[in-house]
Structure formats: structure tokens, C-alpha cells
Model the fold of this input.
Amino acid sequence: MTFRARLTIGMLAAALLPIAIFGIGVRREMAARLNRQADRQVDALVNVLRADLTTEVRDTRARLGALAHQLAADTRFRLAVESGPSADRRWLLDWAVEAMRGTGLAMLQVQDSAGRIVSSGHFRNDFDRLDPRLPRALAAARATGAVVRARLADGVLQALAGVDSLTVGGRRYTIVGARALDSVRLANLSPNSEIGVVLVIGDSAARARLPACGAAVLPRCAVAELALPYFDDSADGPGRSARFLVTRDSGPIEALRRSVDRWLLLALGVTLVAALGLATWFAGRIARPITELADKTARVDLDRLDQEFATDRDDEIGALARLLDAMTSRLRSGAARLRETERRATVGDLSRQINHDIKNGLAPIRHVVRHLTEIAERQPDQLAAIFGERRATLESSVEYLDGLARNYAKLSPALDRSSSDPNAILREIAAANGAAHAVIELRLAEPMPPVRADPLVLRRILENLVGNAVDALDGRPGRVILSSAAADAPNGRRACLTVADSGRGMGPEELDRSFDDFYTTKAAGTGLGLSVVRRLVTDLGGSVRAETMPGQGSTFTVEIPTA
Amino acid sequence: MAHPEMYRHRRPTRCVDLLAALLVACAKPSVPVGVAPAAGASCLVRADSTAPALTDVRIVLPGPIRLEAAPIFGSLGELIVQKQLYAPLVRSDCNGQVVAGLAERWRSDPTGRRWTFDVRAGQRFSGGAPIDAMAVRDSWPRAGASPRDGLSLLEPIVTGPLTLETAVVEPLEALPAAFADVALAVVGSGGRGAPSAESGAFRITRSARAGGSYTSFDLAPVAEGLGPRLHVDVVPADADLRDVLDRQQVAIARAGIVIARDPTALSYARGHPEFTVVPLPWDRTYVAIASAASGAAHPSPEVRSSLARDAVRGDARAAEPPYWWENAPACARSARAQPARATGDVAYLAGDPIARELAERIVALAGSSERAPWVSAMLAGHLAVRPLFRAVGFGKTALDSALGSGRLAAAIVPYPRLNPVVCEGFVKAPPGSALVPLVDSRAHVIALRGVPSFVIDADGAIRFLTAAAP
Done:
């Protein structure tokens, strides 16, 4: 795994982990608080419900007591129940209807001692029906009241009932009253949509649908209950109980959790995308100078020690670059010394070769001279003729020696580092290298500081570059621009001498090998020009670099220390 | 087919009731101005003859009132309005006396089946068209001529410009009084969506409607000075008429008439000397349409009396035979029938308190441990499936549909007390069901002082006297 990948992963983890931990913590804390709040509401609701039921039963009994008192004192009631069918019977049948309206009760019924209904407010025409069980059941549950399921003309009514009695003419009458327990009323008890109150009778299917809340997450479950006696006046059988179940709907909490989860995932997603982008950019920014240093370092060898590591960064990378630059500088010095040693070692070989070559060149001359000497001594009259015959040999040998001298001159090292004026040398070269198709321009900085180099060496460097530039024009009209400038570098002030041409340029491979020994693209080239240039520049403590674009020309820049 | 007995029966009952009411009204010392029968005409009601005659009378009728099907009526309010607007060939007063209507003379052949009417010349519809024999013939088919009609009237024949001849399938002793039925009133063709052209003593000069029902009318006599201008206000059937009476007191200068069945309103009116309460003839019989054929086990007269006395708060009595549907069953039956499905519903016609109270009483009796045999018989087939019944109100159309679907245990509906000439305007019993008569009921007219004299026709409609229409 690359350093950049590790850096990216680390940054992602650093960005995502805190958000994930924060989100999960908020989610758990929120759920815990909501549950505690719901529990408090349930407790409060149970207390309110218990108090409300107690108050209602007491209030109903009070109203029934008042009605019983009123009824006992009413002469029309006495006449209606004592006289049989009469004009007051219709009044009696209507009495419970009117009394029920006036008291706000939902159920009101008067029964005689036999349990026969003599007046019914909630079901006016239910008179004369025998139903003695209801007052008995209510009397048994006098303290708590009871939930009654009473018949109506158009259905049934569930109500919280109480009972009272009165005596008229020695006969006892019971009066049953109740307040409705409809769904609206139960819904009004609920503080919010999450907590509700449901009235469940016996072990009905409704009870089965509302299991007690436990550890499992249920959509709606019962968290508390209050039980009261129950009586159904339309059904026989043993009495059952009515349960007020306080239910809790986990739907809103679950919905809130899901919402929080969605937002958390959204936040993580956005953070992931943003962190990925930032980490990639940041890791790239951190790794790029290291990669550049690695690339430069990979290019360094004994023949290519002109890599520049100098930088103005003041961080660890800058320190490393400066260390590498110093190391390269030391390597350059060492390499120069090594080459000097090698040169000295090879001077002997070279001298022997030169000696051999010169001897080879001198041998024909010596032979011709001896021959001519013999002719002059023996046949003086033939001297002119013989000289004419051997002259070509002499000229050929001289030409060979001259060529040999020029070739060896190219390998001649410059050991003198005296000061020289680069602008003057550039002007001389421009004047000497003019060609019909090439226009040589000078763009010289004035004043230009002198450089620490032997003028002959500097001239060889620049002549090589200008010669290559003119050759790069391939005989076509073009320009060669010679320029000079001075610049401050971390390792001192330097002169930048540039030779740019508008020639054919070079491809990447050609550029890579352009400074190699004996590499040439010219038919008559030796492949030593740029190699010698780089060695000479390196020996001067400078550097040379090339920039090129196929078809658009090349630019060679030589940087050497100023004097 | 109508039974002659029903017409013989209704005359003395109606007159006795009316006379009794009038006598009671006159006997009350606290009522200085009451209703006194006109000399020689017991069905003439003349309120406060000493008060100046009012030219504008406000009438309050229970709704809804529609005139699209005129002269067929579905409520007492529609009957009273149509009675002012559309005239039959003859009229039958509360004594059963047949008097001239649009016809000035009438006669029958010896068999009593063929009847000839001479229409009075010079009479016109409200649109100006003449009322002649042709107009009468064109009008009558709207009343129907199918065998299901109560009168079984045959197609009339025009024998002269003003002479019309018709026949009935069987001779009836009640003829020609049956020709006075408002269903045989002569109506002209009206415009699209407009009421039929009037032929009676009054014309509609203004009307207002809401949701298809009329909310008010202004009726003017055919000619100025021939009678009071009538302003008819239609109130919902369940409206508290005491409010209407209170407003009447405030606007006492516009003395009026209120038609009411509500016992509370009647009791309220009886407590005020400004009002006179006169019972109208028994016009409705409430029947239970039982899906089980065994429901034909009728409750005893005592049970019916108990229902009328205790279960119903309106003016009611035990249903008294004869029942016209026993002799003309086709008129009371609908055509469609489907298998019964037990639901435990006892339906009633919504907006009819008497029907609701009877339905509730049957529901109560059905849930009693001492269930009466007639209730068991009526609800047989349903009791075993669902012992708990409930009373449910339906509109007329919905009730027709529910009865046809067979999903009701029973339905309590009002039937006309008298044999209807046209079998329309009431809920029909599906084939196979039983009709169990329960109670009769009647409405009352509450008249304020200063109301001009009016008569009560045999069908219970009040009719103001005009110079042109005695």
C-alpha cells in the first residue's frame, strides 16, 4: 500500500469515526430520554385516569341521588307508578329522556322493585323490559362503579355507571345512570398520539392485540391497566371485567430513530465524500514533493549528478531536499575528483595512443623525408619529380594529424577556472557561427556578472550548443537565440546561459539519451558534443538542462556559478 | 282495487274527530275567539269571525315539498300545496259530500262503471291554455292507468269539447268521490323543470328552492279579492315548530296556519289563546314491512293501543281496519324481491319521528326476555341469527333499495290511510313480505286568530274558500 493510500485511509478514519460515534451516541441518548419521558407520561396518565374515573363515579352518584330525590318528591311520578296506564305514564316514559338531557348523562334508567324498566332515557321505548341484574351488579360495585354496555335503539353504549334508589309508596325503585365512555372521550385523555387509552372488555380479541410492552419493540402495546367491573345488559353469563389499557405507540419513536439514522447516514456519506476529496488532495500535496525527490534521486548517477534538489521549503521535506542537494553536491565533487583521477590514469593511455597515432602519422612523413633525402643525395635531378610523386602522401599524413589533433582537442579537459565574461563569449560565437539559413539573435542581460570558468572551456560549451542548434535547423531557415541572465539560487548567484533554436526538437527518448556518450542523430556526429558539455559544466560546478518539443525546437540552459 | 268499505268507514270518523275538536275549542273559556263550525257545514273552519278578514295568510308546512311529480304527493305539505294549485273534476268535502270542481255536472250509467263529466266552460290554466275535455284526458294519464292503480281507471274518452267519459274496472260505491282525489287533479304542462301549469284557485307568484325542495311559495288567488294571498314557508320535518309559532306571534299581523304532528308544538299551541288546534283526519297508517311472511301475525288491538299510547309521542291511535292493501295488494307491493339476509336492522323512514319510535319499540321488544309472539313472528328468521337488533333510519330511496335487497328484518313506514288512487308516493313492500299495521296518526292544523275561513277536505287538506271555488 502506498504512502498516499495510507495517508488517505487515515484521514478518512479520522473524519468519519468521530461523526459515527457522535451519531450513535445521540441516537441512543435520544431514545433513552424519549422512553423515560413516555414512562413519566404513562404514570401521569394512569393517575389522571384513576382520579377521573373516581370523580366521575362520585359525580354520577351525586346526580343520581339528586334525581332520586326529585323523583320521590314528584307527585306525577307517584301517580304514574301507582295508577297504572294513565296520562302520566307518557310523562313517566319521557321523564328519563328529559332528565338525562338535563344532567349530561348518557344513560339513565328507572326500574321498579321487580327490575322492570319504567323509564329509560337512553332508549326511551325500552320500557317494561325486565332487567333486574343491572342494578344488582351496580350495587355490588357501588364503591368503584362499573362499566356498563347498555343497549340503545341504534346500537350499544359503553358507559361508566352508578346506581341509586328511592322509595315511593313503600316500593323501592332503582335509578341507574352513566356517563359515556366513547372513543372520543378516551382519546381526549391521551396527552399525545403516542400514548392512548383503550377500553377492553374481558379477554377479548382486542386485548390479545395489545400485548404488554416488553423488551421487544411492538407497534402498540399496553404499558398499564386499570380494571373495573363490567356488565353487559344484552348478554347473560358471569360478569367480566373491563380494563382501561394505557397503550404506547412506538411508531413515532421508531420514526424518529429512523429519521436520525437517515440523517446520520447522510452526514456520514457527505463527510465520506468530502473527506475522500480532501484526503486525496492533501495526501497528494504531501506525497508529491516526496515523489519528486524520489524521481530526482532515481535519475542521479555518477554521470548525471546535475540534479537540483534545492528548495525554499522550511519543513521536513525541505530539509530532506537540502540534504539530498548537499549529498549530490558532494557526489559531484567526488565524481569530479574521481574523473580527474581517472583522467590522470588515462592520460598515460591517451598519451600512448596519441603517441601511437602521431607515430602512425609521422611514419609516412618520415619515410617520404628519408626517400627524398636519398634522392637528393643520389639523384638530385629527380628530386622535383619524386617530390611531386610523394607530395600527396605528405599532405595526407598532415591532414590525418590535423584531424587527429582536432579530435583530441575535443577531449581536452579544462582545468583552469579563471573568470570569464559570458556575454563576450556569446557575442564572439554568434559572430563566428553565422549561416545563411540561421539567424542568431542575442538577448543578453546587461550588466552580466563574470562566471567562474575558463574562457576556452566556456567557449567549448557554448560552441557545442550553438553548433547543435544550427544543425537542428536541418538547413531550413530558422532562429537561434542566445541569452544570458543572472539569478539568485539557494546555493549562490548563478549565470543562466540559454541556447534556444526553432529546429526540429527532440522526442522524450532522444532527450533522455541526448547527454549520453557517443549518442548522436547526425550522420557525421561523434556523439561526444553534449556529453562533453555536461562534463564541462559539471566540472564548473554548474548544471545543464534541456527543454524540447518535437517540431518546435529545443532550449538548453547552462547554469554556472558566478565569479 | 279500492274497497268501498274504506270510504264508508272514514266519513263518520273524520267528521266526529273534527267536530269534537271544534267543540273542545269552543268550550274552552280561556279561548275567547275559537273555531266554530259554519252553520250547516261541519268541515268549514272559521277562525274568529269577529276579526277583520286578512288578505295575506302565512302557512307553515313540514317539508320537503317538491312539485315535479304533481299531482302525486308524498307528504301532507305537498298535498296541501297541490290542493291550492290543482283542481280535480269534483271535490269531496269533509262530510263526503261531492261538490263541483272543474266539472259542473257528472253522471253514470246504470252499472256505475261508466262516468261522464261536463267540464265548466271558460276555465283556463295558469299559462292561458283552456281547460277542456282534451286537457283533462291529457292530464289523467300522468296519474297512471295500470292495473296496479288503486282506482283501476280506464283510459278516458273525449266525447265533446267539454265532455269526458271514463270507466273503472269495477263499480265502486265510493264513486264519484274517488274522482276528487288530488291525484286526479287536472294539471297543465309546465316548462322544463318548472311545476305543472295550475288549474286550481291559486297561482304560484314566487317560489324559492334549496337542494331541489321548495323552501317558500307565494300563492295568489286567480283573481284579486277572491281569497287571501298565501305565503307558504316550508320547514324541515324535524324543526321545532314552537319557534315558528313564536315568530307567528311576533308577526301577528300576518296571522297564519301551521300544520303540525309534533306533540310538543301542539301542546305549546294549546297553551296559548291565540291559537286554535284542529285535528285533521287520520291520514296515515304506520305499518311494519316484515321480511318474514310469518310476520302476518298482527299485534292485538290492545298491543296496538299500547304502541299508540306509550311508544309514539305524536297523535296516534291503534291502527284500525280495514286496510286497503289487503284488498289492493298490488298497489302496496314493489316488483323486485331478493332473498332475505339477516342483519338485525329495523329500518324506519328518516325524518319521521313516529316511524322511528315504532322501530325503536320493536327493537326493544325484540331484546326483551318476554318477547311478544307477534314480534317473534315478525322477526322470525332473524332472531336466531342475530338477537340484538337496532333501529336505523333510511331515506325513501335508500329504504326502497334496502327492502328490495332483503337485508332488513323489518321496516316501519307510513302508508296512506285511504286507498290511494295512484300507487305512488309511499314505500312499497317487497313480494313475500308481510304488512303489519301498527298505529294510525294524524296531523293538526294550528290556526291563529284572523285567518279566513277554510274547509278541510276528505283527504285532510285544508282549502281556502274563494268566490270562484266554494
About this structure: The two ends of chain A are 49 Å apart (CA to CA). The mean pLDDT of chain A is 83. Chain A has 13 helices and 15 strands.
